[in-house]
Amino acid sequence: MNFWAIADTHLSFAKQKDMSRFGEKWLNHTERIANAWREQVSSEDVILIPGDISWAQSAGRILPDLAWLSMLPGQKVLLRGNHDHWWDGIGKARALAQPFGFHLLEGDSLELNGVILCGAMGHVAPHDPYYKSDEKKDRYTRELVRLENALEAGHKRRQSPHQPMILMMHYPPFTSDGKRTAYVDVISRYRPTVCLYGHLHHPREWEIAQQGEFEGVEYALVAADYLNMIPHRVLTAPNSSG
Question: For the chain, give me the number of helices (H) and strands (E)?
Answer without folding.
Answer: 6, 11
